[in-house]
Design goal:
Layout (H helix, E strand, L loop, with lengths): L3 H14 L14 H12 L12 H12 L9 H14 L3 H15 L5 H12 L12 H12 L9 H12 L11 H10 L12 H9 L4 H19 L16 H13 L13 H14 L10
Helix pairs in contact: 1-2, 1-12, 1-13, 3-9, 4-5, 5-6, 8-9, 10-11, 11-12
Length: about 300
């Protein structure tokens, strides 16, 4: 049985090396080994490119950049990166950076739209103890949940638990982070290296909805988890995917990342991508799914 993950994997390589596809990618190459090695490296790149997760400040950097990683962001990625650099220049120790970022953001940004970003950072970094989070601060809760999820396998994931944590970030009226929706909430955990999370964004959601005959971001997230769990068992002993051995097998994040790489054309996670031909690449995914008889009720749960 051909799986969705294998279908997407083969298509990603074909888009890069097949001469007939060279007009719909900025990453065309005739070197298959190069394309395949780069694809594997990008799929396995768990933490946000250029970032680490060794400290609370590094997680806060990811949180801030993630807030700028959406349409109609209150601040640009460049503005947020500039703020983080400014904080690091002014404070050498990481605890001072966390404590000072809100004040520095208030001094740096004065537009009305920037208030959403500043309120979001203020909520995460506040030392207030919240009953809704078990009487701990928001960042303590994030650290606890990160520790809970970081080593979970796909077989151990209880979807209701995952959704509960996402709802804390983006839905619960008392704990919602300003400006954060479902996609950003899931991507925050995913960009911190938690591979059972994935981002149902504009590239991923339509593909997962197509595959599972469902609709909406929540259904796309549910599909990412269920499809990864199903296909991890199928591909576990497939020599073609032995490079996933020791990396958790097929996970939500790897499936999400594979769809994103094709959809965005950002194959090397370096920003070199083709935005013009997103519909054509999406149609190639649809055609490949149809050809391999994948669009059926098998993944609809």
């Amino acid at each position: 049985m051909t799986t969705a993950f294998e279908t997407l994997y083969d298509l990603a390589i074909s888009i890069r090396i097949n001469p007939t596809h060279h007009k719909i990618t900025k990453n065309h190459t005739l070197n298959r080994d190069l394309a395949e090695n780069q694809l594997r490296r990008s799929i396995l790149s768990l933490v946000m490119p250029g970032e680490n997760i060794n400290s609370r400040w590094e997680k806060l950097r990811i949180f801030c950049k993630n807030l700028a990683n959406r349409d109609h962001s209150p601040l640009s990625f460049q503005e947020v990166s500039g703020l983080l650099s400014k904080v690091e220049c002014l404070h050498s120790d990481e605890s001072s950076r966390v404590l000072s970022i809100v004040d520095i953001a208030n001094e740096t940004f004065t537009s009305e739209r920037s208030a959403i970003f500043k309120d979001a950072v203020k909520k995460l970094t506040s030392r207030e103890l919240l009953p809704e989070l078990g009487g701990i601060s928001y960042f303590d809760w994030v650290d606890q949940r990160w520790l809970y999820w970081i080593n979970k396998s796909m077989e151990e994931v209880i979807f209701e638990e995952l959704i509960h944590d996402i709802d804390i970030l983006c839905s619960n009226k008392k704990t919602k982070i300003p400006g954060m929706g479902l996609a950003l909430a899931t991507n925050f955990f995913a960009d911190m290296g938690v591979m059972v999370f994935g981002k149902p964004d504009r590239h991923v959601t339509p593909i997962m909805n197509l595959l599972t005959l469902r609709s909406g971001e929540l259904e796309a997230l549910k599909a990412l988890v269920s499809v990864a769990r199903i296909e991890n068992k199928i591909l576990l002993h497939n020599p073609k995917f032995s490079w996933l051995d020791g990396y958790g097998g097929v996970t939500t994040r790897y499936l999400d990342r594979l769809i994103y790489l094709i959809g965005s054309d950002n194959f090397n996670l370096d920003g070199q991508k083709d935005n013009l031909h997103v519909p054509q690449r999406r149609e190639l995914i649809r055609s490949a799914f149809i050809e391999n008889n994948l669009i059926s009720s098998r993944y609809s749960q």
